Amino acid sequence: MNVIALGFFDGVHIGHAALLNQTVSVSNRLGLDSCALTFDVQPKQFISGKGEPLLNTTQDREYLLKQYVQRVLTLRFDDFLMRMEPQIFIAEKIKPSAAHVVVGEDFRFGYKGEGTSTLLAMECKKFGIGCDIVPLIALDSTTVGSTLIRRLIADGSMEDAVRFLGHAHILSGTVKHGRRLGTTIGAPTVNIEIPEHIVKPAYGVYLTRTFACGQRFPSITNIGVRPTVAENNRPNTETTIFGFSGDLYGEQIRIEFIKHMRNEKRFDSVDRLKAQIARDIETAKEMHG
Fold first, then answer.
1. With contact defined as beta carbons under 8 Å apart, do 121 and 133 qualify?
2. Which fold has domain 2-135?
3. The whole model's pTM is what?
4. Which of 143, 261, 148, 254 has its CA nearest to residue 202?
5. Rounded Cα distance, 158 and 168, in Å
6. Extents of the domains making up the chain
7. Does pLDDT of 64 surpass 80?
8. 248 closest CA partner among 206, 188, 207
9. I want to staple 238 with a disulfide (CB 3.0 to 4.6 A). Which of 45, 75, 189, 196 is the partner?
């Protein structure tokens, strides 16, 4: 049996952290495993066929959740699950493995979202399952939520997003070959793609850390269309890793965004671009300490 946190947990922000910390606290008290139960796709997005880009891929969300709980269970959200009555969901998906559940006060589940946190607590009581309902968390009088954080990241307000997240915004991907323009101007980079369903940070230069080959390195990341040297408008994510040498092509890396340093801009010449990149790198090294 487990103590289970229920939710989609996009971003795993400080509101989610309160819920997950409560889950771990109860699991320690009961001597049971702590677990997060989530879904492979966002239910609202599946139901409507549209929705906002997410903060995290399933892989990144699982990584963040595992910073708190011992295990992550991911349910496939499909037509069958979408039409499941709330009481049936509890009986079939919760009761078999839960001794205690923890949810946020705004948690909704079951057919047409008819299941509420209050209903969950009532139904769990019938099965002898404990249930904690965690209030929403506010920071600076603002309720913390994934929608707010998505907007902050898309607007380039990365420092504010990080405050609401409680950790760096993360983006993972497999390193691919770029056009090697960075190498030709003296600033070699590693390149990954942001999946279509993931929120794209505002174009610009960011202070980052990069986890690669089992180590975390200071880095700087540019997101944008490289208007000075590129001929198309396809966005790129290019990271210069400090203190690393080697070929990462085909390897999985995780970029941790900390701060927005400057907006993307077009330069009159490649030489001016080189000079700005050199300044950006020096500034980033100083900020990393």
1. yes
2. Rossmann fold (3.40.50)
3. 0.91
4. 261
5. 9
6. 2-135, 168-288
7. yes
8. 188
9. 189
